[in-house]
Each structure stands twice: as structure tokens, then as C-alpha cells.
Amino acid sequence: GFKNLGNTCYLNSVLQCLTYTPPLANYCLRGQHSKQCDGANSACPFCMLENRISRSFDIEVPVDAPQRIYKYLQTFAKHFRAGRQEDAHELLRYAIDACDSACARLQKRGSKSSDQTVMKEIFGGFLQSQIWCLSCNAVSSKLDSVMDLSLDIVRTKTLKEAICNFFQPEVLDGNNKYQCEKCKKLSVARKQLSIYQSPNVLVIQLKRFENFLGGKIDTHVEFEEELKLRSHMSKNSPDVHPDYSLYAVVVHSGFSQYGGHYYAYVKDPRGQWYCCNDSFVSAASSATVLSERVYILFYVRDS
């Protein structure tokens, strides 16, 4: 368990999920970043995360505290403030981006031209966006890199439904017409998103905090431990059909993004689920996990 250092449940829950992210844990336990980095004793975000994950598996104590990461919280996000409740998904995004930048700096120093860092290899994927002009049938296509998916859940009962809605074709018409380069005019068009390259670790955020007043969508969204994305892959994708298994979730308890409490469930390498509620850790069943109103889901590829 992780000691709450003062409204740090959002930090603790995210750290538990990152600790049990298999490829990230393997990389950190081998010390592959700190061996190359001269920032091991300073404020390198990846070195801090590596040290945190290593301590979780190495030390024999029931409760620890992420003191160093908490001390250097603004290294991950300058606007974060100690003692203030922050958003778990926002922290996760900033932590992944900060560690990705640390890896990129190492590669640049080593004169490596590739921008494919270990964080991108773990969490990164590509969405393909295609737009069909309905006047001349011209097709425009581009790839966008992503590190997670954020899904709307308004009037949505299942995760599969939310994913299908995300990839649903969109008609561009009215004030949103498409400027076709071939027609040289504003035209009615159809836009379609698909997955060109699926990530090795798929992070999904359910948009529970959509009300600008801070309200929360607290409905239960049904999800499963197995997830298949083959029906949403691009036709020209070189990726094999990806199948995923759930290994961690973050839950927000409360009625507003400005308050409440975060806790996590993680699955250990033997397949046993645990509820990680700050310093309290207890065994949990799969049925308990699936009954939760989850906020963030973590899936890892089966192969």
C-alpha cells in the first residue's frame, strides 16, 4: 500500500496501475533507463518512476510512501499543487508524457534519430482518419499518434458500445463541411476513424467529468476482462488483430471532480486481483472489479 500524503489518492492509484503494467515493470526492474541516465539522483521523472516501481517489488514492508515523486510533483505537471486533489487521468497523461520526454532526451544525447521511445512502444498507437468527399469520392487519409482513448459515456451502458460510438462514421455537413482539395470547394463528406496500430498497453478513460460545473456521470458502464478490437482496425493496417486482457482499473468515488476519493484494482502476475486503497491492500474477486464504476481501464495485449 501507499501512504496518503495529503489528498494523494489520485497519485497512489495511478502509481499502483503503472507498477503492475507488465512491460513497464519489466523495463524498470532491469534499470534500463537509470543505467543510461545521469539524472538518477536528481529530478528525472523516469528515474523516479523506475525507483518507485523497483521499491514496490523489492522492499518487504506493508506500506510505503511515494515521497520523492510527491516532492517533485511539478516535474510531471507544473500546475499540480501539493495537498490539492487532482485528476487521476490528468496525472497519468502528464506522467507518461514526462517519462517519454526523458527517454527522448537520452536518445538525442546518444545521437539516435528514432522518436520511438520505450513509453511510445508501451502505450503508443496510431489512429487513421479518413475523409471521403461525397461530391467527387476523393479520399484524404492521415495518421495520428495516441497514448490512450477517451470515450464518451452519455447514455452508454457498455464499454463495447462506447468504443463503437467512438469509431462511428461522422457526416461533415452544414457549418462543418469539408474543404475538398480536389473539388476546391466546401463539400459534404464522411469522416471515419479506425485503428492503424494498436498499442501494447491500451489505456481507456471514461469521460465521467463532462459537466463544466464539476458534475459527474456516475452510471455503471459494463466492461469485460477480455477486449477484442479487430472490428475497429483499419483495412490497410499491418497490425495483427489485437486481443487484450484487463490488468488494472482506477475508480473514483464521489460526486464531483473537485472532491471524492480514488482507489485502484490491480492484477498480480498470478492472476489475483487486489484492491489498493491508499495504505490498505486486500484481495478482491474478478466479480467485484467488474461491478465497479470505473474511471480508467488498463488492458495489455495477450501477445
From TrEMBL:
Pfam families per UniProt: UCH
Cellular component, GO annotation: cytosol; nucleus
InterPro entries reported for this sequence: Papain-like_cys_pep_sf (IPR038765), Peptidase_C19 (IPR050164), Peptidase_C19_UCH (IPR001394), USP (IPR028889), USP_CS (IPR018200)
Keywords tagged on the record: Hydrolase, Protease, Thiol protease, Ubl conjugation pathway
Taxonomy, superkingdom: Eukaryota
Record's keyword annotation contains Protease: yes
Signal peptide range in chain numbering: none
Enzyme kind, highest EC tier: hydrolase
Catalytic activity: Thiol-dependent hydrolysis of ester, thioester, amide, peptide and isopeptide bonds formed by the C-terminal Gly of ubiquitin (a 76-residue protein attached to proteins as an intracellular targeting signal)
Residue intervals of the USP domain: 1-302
Gene Ontology biological process terms in this record: protein deubiquitination; proteolysis; regulation of protein stability
Family the UniProt entry places it in: Belongs to the peptidase C19 family.
The name this protein goes by in its record: ubiquitinyl hydrolase 1
Organism: Selaginella moellendorffii
